What does this fold into?
Amino acid sequence: MSKKTVFVQMATIAAAFSLTACINGRNQCPAPDATRVSTSPIILGQDTVQTTETQTGKYSEMQVVTGDSASQILDQFKLSTPDQILTPEQTPTILVQTRIDTVLMMLPPCDKTHFSHCTLETTMDPYKAFPALANYVFSYADTLSRAGQTDSASVILNSFSTMAPMWEKWQAHSDTLREAFGKRREEKAKEFESMALQIQNMNRVQASYSMVAETADSLIAQLAPGDSLANWAKDQKKIAYTNTLKKASKEFDEIKILADEKAQFAEARKQTETFRIRYRDFEDTLHVQAFLNHVDELEKATDSETAKMWEKQDPAAALAKADTLIANEKFDKAKDLLNKLKTSKLRKEANEKYIALADAYCNKQRKTTSQIFAKSLKQTDEEKKKKLLNDAIAPLDKCLAEFPETTQREKVESNRKFIEKELAK
It folds into this structure.
């Protein structure tokens, strides 16, 4: 840090706090050279100034209530007679309003052990507080000078030159505190080292989220909010949550197959209940209850008359027939047959064929859209062109409405957006 930088920072802090204390009447302000003065309190406007007898020498000391009173004394170097006293109406408004509460309002939140207006829950930011106070000092001195009170302005600014020793002491104290804080961190790290290693090792072997969370919460509870070690423990909980969710999702997908593809509803329900106990933290995320409701609906459908139909008919032959219907673009009949096959022992095959049906149907609709769009490009009449573009969107809407589960969905939506842009031109 350069000497110039140190001086500016020192001057900023000293002048700010010197002014704050001075205008609040809590400390004493230096005045230019004067001989010993002893007198009674003097009333200037609405402000009271109390002079105090000192040793004969370079300075006299005065207790000042507001900047206006101080300026009058410093500039005059003599006691005012009653006819010389300014009335409130004659005193510049800006000086009358320059009080300690103005400075305090400019301060950021800080520790109330240093400033009475602050709370313990907040912390002062010196990079904001000190420059704000320094700017206030400069503005105040400039105001005094413009009002003709140049001695007062000079005294305030001269206090900046006394800051170098104070700044050096503050820097030394800061270094001492940092060293002490570092030792405290080391002691804390050593105290909780075993617990931190335990959490780290559990994540390394991908232990369950509940185990990691329990240990991490125990560590966090012993630390102050915002502590770096507490933040680390929270991050470890997130890692454990992600790892366990991935594992739980894989297991849950296997349970879903029991119901959706193999029609083993009782077993699916049993495994789901066990899964719910093991992964309570993920029950809502994975929609476990919704799946159980789905299993109930599938079981009811399987017990229906449609399901009993396959006791007399061959589901394999019906599946082959569905292939023929799709090839001949008889999509409605194929859809009806495949929905019935979902209640048979060929549920898995019927679901796969249903997706193939959806894709075939949507490809057909996209082809129709493409043909209509090509016609719109040749149309010179704007009204007719817009009608063709609207007609081109209709097949795409039919696809999404009829088979929302199609793998063509992204392409269909992209085509639709493109045509809408053409319509907007």
Remarks:
- The longest strand covers residues 47-52.
- The two ends are 62 Å apart (CA to CA).
- The beta strands are 28-30, 42-44, 47-52, 61-64.
